Amino acid sequence: DYGIQHASAQYDQILNCRFLSIHNPTDTGTAIQFNTFGNRILIAGCRFSNNDRDIRVNTLGHAISIRDSSFENTGSAVTTKTHSIQLEGVQGAVIDGNYFEQVRTATTEGVVLIIGGGGISITGNLFDGGGTTYSNYFVYCSGNPRGVRVTGNYMAEVILGFVRAGGFAVTCHGNEYLDVAVQLTTYQSIMTLMGTPANIDLDVPPDYV
């Protein structure tokens, strides 16, 4: 059911580990889960492959860092509630320099699912949706998180949207966007693949064609 599960943890470092084929036959198997509290957690240099879900930090999380790891073929055959990283109520997190490939998501979830909280930085990652059957969104905001920044990422081949904002603005600057192997450069072409576009702060001006 789990690779690592803690009710609460502080100053934990999970480095250079492999989490492979973690499944739950009736629910969602999770590689790493902190149930109620995670403070100053570092996860780096890890490989996650063929799990139902990879990382979940649930409520009262602070200063979470997930870096330089690979996430491949995430998704549950039992439930559509799938994603690589779920941050729920987390205040302050960095997701940097990771590789995401063919992560299966529900239509109301993303490869990175952010529920409430705020101060989340998603930088320098590669998101490869793998065509039209895997990732509905790469970043999905629910519960109105504040201060979410999605910058300097490479995002290719998504079904519904690269980023879905909640009730507050999400900053999307310096990213590269590809759809059907074509790089998107205009405001309209990019915003067509954004969720809640009124709350997307895009660095491409509306008149740029």
List key phrases describing it.
single chain; 209 residues; mainly beta; 15-stranded parallel beta sheet; 23 strands
Q: Can you describe this structure?
A:
2% of the residues lie in helices and 53% in strands. It has one helix at residues 187-191; strands at 2-10, 13-15, 18-20, 30-44, 47-49, 53-58, 61-67, 70-72, 85-88, 91-96, 99-101, 112-115, 118-123, 126-128, 137-142, 146-151, 154-156, 161-164, 170-173, 176-179, 182-184, 194-195, 200-202. The mean pLDDT is 90. The strands form two sheets. The protein has a 15-stranded parallel sheet that branches. 42% of the residues are buried. The protein has 209 residues and is mostly beta strands.
The coarse overall form would be globular
Rg computed from alpha carbons, rounded to a whole number of angstroms: 16 Å
* Count of strand segments: 23
Counted by DSSP, the helix tally is 1
Mean pLDDT, as a whole number? Answer: 90
| Largest beta-sheet characterization | 15 strands, parallel
Could you provide a short overview of the structure?
The protein has 209 residues and is mainly β.
Spell out the blueprint of helices and strands.
Blueprint: E1 2-10, E2 13-15, E3 18-20, E4 30-44, E5 47-49, E6 53-58, E7 61-67, E8 70-72, E9 85-88, E10 91-96, E11 99-101, E12 112-115, E13 118-123, E14 126-128, E15 137-142, E16 146-151, E17 154-156, E18 161-164, E19 170-173, E20 176-179, E21 182-184, H1 187-191, E22 194-195, E23 200-202
Parallel strand pairs: 1-4, 2-4, 3-5, 4-6, 4-7, 5-8, 6-9, 7-10, 8-11, 9-12, 10-13, 11-14, 12-15, 13-16, 14-17, 15-18, 16-19, 17-20, 18-22, 19-23
Antiparallel strand pairs: 20-21
